[in-house]
Design a protein that fits this description.
This protein has two domains: 106 residues, NAD(P)-binding Rossmann-like Domain (Rossmann fold, 3-Layer(aba) Sandwich), CATH 3.40.50; 180 residues, Rossmann fold (3-Layer(aba) Sandwich). Helix content is 30%, strand content 18%. The chain contains eight helices and twelve strands. α1 links the parallel β1 and β2. It is elongated and about 65 Å long. The protein binds NADP nicotinamide-adenine-dinucleotide phosphate (NAP). NADP nicotinamide-adenine-dinucleotide phosphate binds next to α2, α4 and β7.
Length: 308
């Protein structure tokens, strides 16, 4: 039973291999690109594809993602081979905590207090919001629901936007193109958790950002290419956006000279909101290997037509 490991960008390779070997001693793990005869390969564990990666893998049973997003390889999946996302509660909690932190940073006026502290100023900022403040979550799947329920517990009114209609109770739901305009119009805090697909790439452009309430805050934890970055900068310049917290940018890494780095209204982290944990991840991958070998459906299958 041979697995090819190409997890670069999603967890430490050596940790992945150690955990998988502990759970499945019968698994032979080969590192990309030294994979020997590709016809031996039954499983590929990866985050991003490479040219010719799947060539000659005539015995491939399943492709297993080392991360929650599959945009790095979904376009290259061989026909007829099932693929699965990594849906890890550990990662969801990490993502949700990062997003809650970002929302609270803005909602509790931390940028203004940091500025005051630097100048030794003791002055209350107006913080008394007696109505629940509105958070819109673009892409309310596994991570969005976890994040939304934490924010709802903290008193926010949360609406999740999805492709299909969903019961997200206690969160509200909007879906489709009409739902997006409504969600943008009411979101004081806009959180992006959409997968990167042909439908979502460039979704947040100048026209859509202009629908947000004046001074809204934008928080992106999914993929940088979902927002048109120059339109994001223009929305910050015009005051349409009051600030942004970005874990993801276009491109990554963000070049050292990019003006986003120096903006006082933008906070940047280097794609660390929900890093892959090979210890919890390996157990989920091992379960899908077991399922594939038993002829059972994989958990969290990728739909290659939808792209996520
Ligand atoms: P998920 O469970 O697949 O949820 C995706 C959500 O997006 C679903 O609600 C889906 O709608 C919605 N969606 C997809 N295409 C849409 C469209 N065209 N219009 C409207 N809604 C659409 O994914 P997840 O596990 O929550 O992960 C979300 C993303 O987070 C990943 O794809 C990845 O890019 C990112 N991520 C980032 C990090 C990091 O460290 N920054 C870590 C982990 C994940 P339906 O419910 O109708 O299907």
């Amino acid at each position: 039973m041979v697995l090819v490991c190409k997890t670069g960008g999603a967890g430490d390779d050596e940790q992945w291999k150690a955990e998988l070997r502990r759970l499945m001693p019968e698994l032979e793990i080969r590192d990309w690109p030294d994979i020997g005869d590709p016809a031996d390969v039954e499983f590929v564990l990866l985050f991003a594809s490479a040219p010719g990666l799947f060539d000659g893998m005539t015995g491939l049973r399943a492709v297993l993602s080392a991360g929650a997003g599959v945009d790095g390889f979904v376009g290259d999946l061989p026909q007829g081979v099932p693929a699965a996302r990594l849906v890890d509660p550990w990662m969801q909690t990490a993502m949700a905590a990062w997003i809650v932190h970002a929302v609270l940073h803005f909602s509790r006026n931390m940028p203004a207090y940091a500025d005051q502290q630097a100048r030794g100023v003791w002055r209350e900022q107006f913080e008394a919001h007696f109505e629940p403040r509105r958070v819109g979550i673009l892409g309310c799947g596994e991570i969005g629901r976890r994040t939304g329920s934490l924010l709802a517990d903290l008193g926010f009114r949360v609406t999740g936007w999805t492709r299909t209609a969903r019961d997200l109770a206690p969160l509200e739901n909007l879906h489709g193109a009409a739902g997006l305009d409504e969600l943008l119009g009411e979101s004081e805090f806009l959180v992006c958790l959409l997968p990167l697909t042909p439908e979502t790439e460039g979704l947040l452009d100048a026209g859509r950002l202009a629908r947000l309430p004046e001074g809204a805050f934008f928080i992106n934890a999914s993929r940088g290419r979902i927002v048109v970055q120059q339109d994001l900068v223009a929305a910050l310049d015009s005051g349409r956006l009051g600030g942004a917290w970005l874990d993801v940018t276009d491109p990554e890494p963000l070049p050292p000279g990019d003006p986003l780095w120096r903006r006082p209204d933008v906070w940047i982290t280097p794609h660390v909101a929900g890093v892959t944990n090979p210890v919890t991840g390996a157990a989920l991958v091992a379960e899908n290997i077991r399922r594939a070998r038993a002829g059972e459906p994989l958990t969290h299958p990728v739909d290659r037509n939808r792209g996520y």
